[in-house]
């Protein structure tokens, strides 16, 4: 097994609002193997984006990282000084956000924004910076880059803007790229271009990627490993083939069963009942128990994320000795999707 | 026109004027929907798919006359919708309802569920005043909301529940046709599945007809009987769901279908990448509107607008396509001009391919 470029253990990020603590990220553990792509999936409010911001130490008040460790190539990021973090951001770890229009500065040209990165991290001057910016724009497939470099974000289409974001994120050839829903705002044909581009650039540069998404199709196509999050916790961590072939956690199964597929015929979708609990109604035991079709007495206690025989992790009582519900319960009925 | 037709659209056009210049005169038009025709049968679900800006939402709005169409004909059960005066139109709207994408924006934040549903029934006067309360409770149960939530405001509901309120409001006037404009797009998958199942159940129970406007082709395959694919204001392909997914004939439909990520890591789809972005609908390309991005395009595509027609004998009456070369491509007689699997190729701003043009020039 390859080295892990990023190793997160029991990360906790909370927001302190009106005297109460909202645990947005509540004990997240996962690894990103070097050169591979890790997908983080989950629905809105599961803590995916806050996990990403925590890695870059971009959590602002009233939020705070309250515990856990983020190990990047042997360096503990939770203890890194601000100056060191500034050096890492955009240089060793880069991030692409969902909405390219709001993440680009509307009053600066594309070139000015790209040059900034070269100036700060590599001390390049205006002329050299512009040259590199044009090269970078060409690399991400922007037509007439020499002309585009002097244009403003509003002059570009959504797909072009996301390409510019990627160019900016990759300007300093980072070792880790965090892509937070990079294609959610884009049409499918443009999404296909962008995902392929990220994959190709990953091979060229040899970087690792964290792909945050809610789209299981995107996960299947781009990721090597997957962490499924629910209510601030990782409920399952597996290689991508195992996750789709043999999903273990009832929540993962629920997601797969409720997904309308374009590639196969389905009679009926099997939705997950109910909805995500509000932060002040969070169950103390397994967070998914109130919506879980298999929930039993023991689920009022919180299960641990435990490693299974094949090396994948799952946080569910069904896979433990203590399980007190139906023995050998069929969590995933493959018949449904084939 | 057959007995079974509920809605018939003929040569519908929707042009939005662009005002500009010193005197604020109309300088040009955005041709959002440009001459489309289709029908929807009773109890059927027809989906309109396409990327942003293809005119799918505009089509839905034009049918309800939320925007007044520029030209064309809309017939509902044989009645001419566009010729109706305001009073007739108001009555008409109890038979055609719409559910919007954003349940946050389409519900009045200062009205409770009771008030929202009551208002709809009052305007259309479909239920006597005394019975309205009972009907509201019945509707809430139908869409899966609890009776005790009747006096809650929209902000007290989750996204999925709010969309259920939107559905209850549409149902409150006993419509025959519901236009679902991206009705499930904003919802998480687990909630989306709940709402899709609800829509299907309501259709079975009440014999509803849906015009489903969506960009998610997984959702579309699941819910539709027939599919209309639009590109830049035109219908490029129309047919039965199975036929469209299993035998897409228009190069655009093929590219669109191949672009969707498949939730199966073992199946890697052969992907067709389209060059560049959708051109502006202000001055859409001549001839076939897709020719600027189509690897199969020829001079004929630049000059002649293709007609939507049944090309393939096997799929007669089921599947029509607007492409000059649909059959030739299928039979391998007409080959693409460039490799469609390279994503980083350089294009100029018209979306045409620099390299292939250069090559063509050299060959000439």
UniProtKB/TrEMBL annotation, chain A:
Domain ABC transporter, first and last residues per copy: 6-256
Top-level taxon in the UniProt lineage: Bacteria
EC number: 7.2.2.11
Record GO terms (molecular function): ABC-type nickel transporter activity; ATP binding; ATP hydrolysis activity
Database matches in SUPFAM superfamilies: P-loop containing nucleoside triphosphate hydrolases (SSF52540)
GO biological process: peptide transport
InterPro entries per record: AAA+_ATPase, ABC_Ni/Peptide_Import, ABC_transporter-like_ATP-bd, ABC_transporter-like_CS, Oligopep_ABC_C, P-loop_NTPase
Gene3D superfamilies linked to this entry: P-loop containing nucleotide triphosphate hydrolases
Membrane-topology annotation of the record: Peripheral membrane protein
Subunit structure: The complex is composed of two ATP-binding proteins (NikD and NikE), two transmembrane proteins (NikB and NikC) and a solute-binding protein (NikA).
Protein known as: Nickel import system ATP-binding protein NikD
Taxonomic source organism: Salinicoccus cyprini
Automatic annotation (TrEMBL), chain B:
Name assigned to this protein: Dipeptide ABC transporter ATP-binding protein
Protein's organism: Salinicoccus cyprini
UniProt family annotation: Belongs to the ABC transporter superfamily.
Gene3D superfamilies: P-loop containing nucleotide triphosphate hydrolases (3.40.50.300)
Region annotation Disordered: where it falls in the sequence: 344-364
Matching InterPro entries: AAA+_ATPase, ABC_transp_ATP-bind, ABC_transporter-like_ATP-bd, ABC_transporter-like_CS, Oligopep_ABC_C, P-loop_NTPase
Pfam families, alphabetized: ABC_tran, oligo_HPY
NCBIfam families: oligo_HPY, PRK11308.1
PANTHER family: D,D-DIPEPTIDE TRANSPORT ATP-BINDING PROTEIN DDPF-RELATED, TRANSPORT ATP-BINDING PROTEIN
Coiled-coil segments: none
One example GO MF annotation: ATP hydrolysis activity
UniProt xrefs under CDD domains: ABC_NikE_OppD_transporters
Keywords for this protein: ATP-binding, Nucleotide-binding, Transport
Residue ranges constituting the ABC transporter domain according to the UniProt record: 7-257
Keyword Nucleotide-binding attached: yes
Example GO biological process: transmembrane transport
